[in-house]
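step 4 of 6: structure.
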Amino acid sequence: MIELTINDQVYKVPPGRTILEACREFGIPIRTLCYHPALEPYGGCRLCMVEIAQPGRKPRLATACTYPCEAGLLVWTDSQRVKTSRRLTAELLLATATGAPEIEALARQLGVTTVRYCLPESDACVLCGLCVRACQEIVGVSAIGMIRRGIAKEVSPPFQVASATCIGCGTCVMICPTGVLTLEQITDYHSPHRQLRDGQEVYLDCELCAPQRRIGP
Amino acid sequence: MNRTTHATHDSQAVETGWLRLADIAAFQHWSAELTQAWDESRPCVKVCDGTGCRALGSQKVLSGLRAACQKADLPIPLEIVGTGCPGFCECGPLLTIYPQKISYQKIKPNDVKEIVERTLVGGEIIERLLYTDPLTGEHIHREPDLPFYNKQLRQVLDFNGRIDPTRIEEYVALGGYRALVKALSELEPKQVIDEVKAAGLRGRGGAGFSTGLKWEIARQNIRRTGTGYIICNADEGDPGAFMDRSVMEGNPHSVIEGMLIGAYALGIQDGYVYIRAEYPLAVQNLQTAISQAEEIGLLGEDILGTGFTFHLRVRLGAGAFVCGEETALMASIEGRIGEPRPRPPYPAESGLWGQPTVINNVETWANVPLVIQRGSAAYAAVGTEKSKGTKIFSVVGKINNTGLVEVPMGITLREIIEDIGGGIPNGKRFKAAQLGGPSGGCVPVEHLDVPIDYESLSQLGAIMGSGGMVVADEDTCMVDFARYFMNFTQEESCGKCVPCRVGTKAMLATLERICAGYGEPGDLDYLLEMGQHVRDSSLCGLGQTAPNPVLSTLRYFRDEYEAHILEHRCPAHVCKGLITYSVIAELCTGCMVCLRNCPSDAITGAKQQVHAIDPLRCNRCGMCQSVCKFDAISVN
Amino acid sequence: MPMDVQELFTLIDEEEGGQGSLIAALAAIQERWRYLPPEALLLASARFGVPLSQVYGVATFYNAFSLKPKGRHCLNVCMGTACHVRGSPRVLDRMETKLGVQAGETTRDRQFTLETVNCLGACALGPIVVSDGEYSGQMTPQKVDVLLKHIRRAEEG
């Protein structure tokens, strides 16, 4: 077992755990956005930032979802430095994700009061990559990917036309944290999952896949 | 041993025609023979044929010389050799005549005829082609006397300018590959690593991590997994830096030898050189060197019969600065997009295809043979206590002697700028030197005496970086300078993490507003706060260092920022939104050249009458200033 | 655009299998046809066993690749630091004005593609413009006009 200190308390974890996994196990809250237990850690949103220090070394910031638990590691999940980092990241997120109530709520909770810079055109996609990663790692189809780079990066099927390989499972839609992704953006294929309930479109299990569904919150 | 006729310089693979060396004894015999036959003073003409001089016509000079020498009535037959870049780029194309070592500079193809007739045949020196010392007015005849080389200590760049990089035998004649043989025959792999550690060699890519320590950690992992890789990071992306390019063009075997020694020390069989596609000559010379080394038996299976096998492959970059970051580089070699991944795990533990991997910069690899050849003690005799050896810098910008310099660690910045660089042109004042390009910070005039070593520079908020040194003078706007770098990093951001993807854009937008004249009082606090955030929270080195130029210029040149924002003024007269172009009435001859060339039709005036620029139509393109022969356009 | 599919097969086949060779294969195609036709990406996906979405991701991530055909003449303006302090932005401005396109674009008649490049390493001659592999140093806005005229004349003559 590995012994490490989180928020001045000593914990023991089996080897191979990340700081985030350890915190989740012990009920220590850490905010995440691009993390999902069924997917490889991505380290993209930077919201799960914690302050770490090896004994005798200067503390620095690291993402809890990727950093492994090490013997003797000191971790602080709610220091001033961590709070500032999360707030500024949230402010930047909000600058790029307009019309996303989930992001606005997140930002408010993390202490964002004003957004000092706004991207001229943006939608509610925060480029967390959950949709792309789920399609690749779990569904195994890779119908969508990230195209371009930097601020121009976006999620798209190849050639930005309807995907020929999408199977319409709707996993990407269900996993999207802001609800901006729709199946129309990806394929012409009519998914058996998409149904109308009370005039609203929802994604539900179909009889074929209900027993095998592995995606959870 | 017979040799096939040396093909033209442009051919892709130059066959050596040598027989494959069966064992170490065969190599030593061959090496001794070549060294014996090598005559540094043999009559020849060496012309710099690096990319810089090629851009100025060195290829035409070379072909012109060869043709003219064949026809001319020379006292003795002369060899015409194209070499790598010796570093004195400001005065290129460069030419040195042996044995007298007469150095001619700024050669044009038209000068060839005169050089052949007057100097090569007639033995006469052509004064106008000599270097003139700007201070004393003295003509310098001999290459070793050029003040540019005075304070340099050229260890890595030694062979540049001396050998033809497409001929392995010249590298061997000067002692090449002896370090490899010494390692293979006299040292255990662990001893090689100990030597590299003891020498104090630190990564020359910018981070300055102990090379020996990195190898030591990796070796433990490689022994565990049974496999691993070494990589040479030749993706030199810093704008204004071309040290690595010149080493690869001018002395590629030094890198190959370094990697061979490293592979031996680490117990590795496969290596890659990841090199920018924008360096076609370096790629070509490297590939030639690799195939020659393979042909001779110094690379590949069972090297020199010792059982040591090492395969070296070349992988080209595809135009992404972020691929200079080691995890993005490995992703690119794996055929994926160049997105960095979080560390830990570090490449020494899990790198290329999940295997332990050692990545080092070109200059680091080129230093390795020197460490083994001379021994760690001799190597460590150069430099300071914590920064050993030499560093190559590309000194560019507002400096008299633009070019590559190699200096011992510990030399002061002032010595580089004034003694080697020759000071600032046109009598202007030095303002700052930016070290480390888009990842680095500036050193202002009050710190000109800082010694060049890793620790001293980082205390000033600057970094050693990979070697780019851009000099700014009083006419350089430091806000525009910071904006330029932020524009670069923002464009090159991979986009994976929020702080870099959005933060650099936010900082750039703010800087652009300030340079356009729309800065607001809160902007400086925002730049500071967001800059520190991007630095502390980004996923990789690109984002973590992108704010450095901004933070550094804010630290030392806050007054310039404030002038832009509060006084609506650009003190250096650079930022378009804050300057006006006007005609100097006393100097204007009314020639109408500027009027005709103005793209915005902003200039009015008749022949022989003083012209006027309408500030409302003028878009500050600078065309008028560019075409005016009378210096009658002023900017303020 | 008419394209020899057999040649495309050969180019891709020259690289060793495995995703590691994907970028080298795309680079060879880019050099041959001055862009990456959609067929090339589909073929590469099949050949190297990489999902099309990832191949397309690679094709759009790296600056060296272009999904649209480039012009007959490639003009690269060096925007390296040394060239920048010596006035390359003005040179670029002039190019954009004279050609009527922004950096990264191709003129409508497909004669010119204007691009910026980050440091060619020939800093002593800045600002530099590379046209079809030929370097022109110490460029000024005025010399831009001369250069363009030169290229146009050469094409006509």
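step 5 of 6: annotate
 - Chain B is about 40% helix and 15% strand.
 - The two ends of chain B are 69 Å apart (CA to CA).
step 6 of 6: archive
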